[in-house]
Design brief:
single chain; about 300 residues; alpha+beta; Gyrase A, domain 2; 3 domains; five-stranded antiparallel sheet; two-stranded antiparallel sheet; 13 helices; 7 strands; about 45% helix; flat; Flavin-dependent thymidylate synthase
């Protein structure tokens, strides 16, 4: 289970409290506050705090003292304009703080998004739990033959079972040795900051991650993409659902222009103009490399 009974009781206590405020709140996000949304086998994502809503974005764009125009459609239109023209500052007016429990190897991918504030559980001071990410059988895949960063066909039968056994056995053996090294039963015990180096990358860690909406949407555009690694993509998908309830107008525009849209180079745009005029355009006369042409064809379907 992602949460212990003590953690569940703490969350229930947090959700039972309410506070009066004069600041804007988002009803959809209020429903998510403190609740842990399970991800993978032991992980979760939960909202600790947030600031702003859709109206904060339009207010910042207009630099007004009110809540924007009285017309929701006008505010939605402005948000779509800002998204369409790649404005960033108005979306930075909203922030969110998340509590995330995730495998270390996912955290190392995640931390490459350097536009957030992070405070991670310290294995120098505390002892890590015996919790490891073990993939579900349908997530065990061979190396892709066409993509050095991707996966190929799912492993099956005896090979899949052998890999799962190795992952479980190695994880447990490493943790057994970790406990032996830090134990002070009849010995001094190795410092925790040294003993942790023996733990595998699939052990779980936790952090608080605070980020503004502009940079969060950039994270989602990359990590909720179908080509992203599965283990980080499921976290991005869980966060995306929270964002959709927090700033629905912004998320709708984001889905349309970022997740569902495409960016063309000047060369690609010129190829489309030539095609519309009835010209036959091939990779050889397009001015694109083979890789660019392959991606261009993919965009055109």
């Amino acid at each position: 289970m992602p949460l212990s009974p003590e953690q569940e009781a703490e969350i229930a206590a947090q959700r039972s409290e309410s506070h009066q405020t004069l600041r804007a709140t988002a009803p959809g996000m209020e429903q998510h506050l403190y609740t842990a949304h399970p991800v993978l086998d032991h992980g979760f994502v939960r909202v600790i705090d947030y600031m702003g809503d859709d109206s904060a974005i339009t207010q910042a764009a207009r630099v007004s003292y009110g809540r924007g125009t009285k017309s929701v459609s006008n505010d939605e239109g402005l948000i779509r304009y800002l998204m369409r023209h790649w404005h960033s500052t108005p979306f930075e007016m909203c922030e969110i703080k998340l509590h995330v429990k995730l495998p270390v190897f996912v955290a190392r991918q995640w931390i490459r998004h350097r536009t957030a504030n992070v405070n991670e559980y310290s294995a120098r001071y505390s002892i890590l739990d015996r919790e490891f990410y073990i993939p579900a059988p349908d997530s065990l895949a061979a190396q892709s033959t066409t993509n050095n960063q991707g996966r190929g066909d799912v492993l099956e039968g005896a090979e899949a079972q052998r890999v799962l056994d190795i992952l479980r056995d190695d994880s447990m053996r490493a943790y057994d040795h970790y406990e032996e090294m830090i134990s002070q039963d009849g010995q001094q015990g190795l410092a925790r900051e040294l003993a942790r180096m023996n733990l595998p990358a699939n052990i779980y860690t936790q952090w608080y991650w605070k980020v503004d909406l502009h940079n969060l949407l950039h994270f989602l555009r990359l990590r909720a993409d179908a080509h992203a690694q599965y283990e980080i993509r499921v976290y991005a998908e869980a966060i995306a659902k929270l964002v959709a309830d927090w700033v629905p107008a912004t998320y709708k525009a984001f889905e349309d222009y970022r997740m569902g849209g495409a960016t063309l180079s000047a060369t690609g745009l010129e190829c489309i103009r030539r095609m519309l005029k009835g010209e036959t355009v091939t990779q050889e006369n397009s001015g694109m490399s083979k890789g660019e042409w392959r991606e261009f064809e993919g965009l055109l379907g």
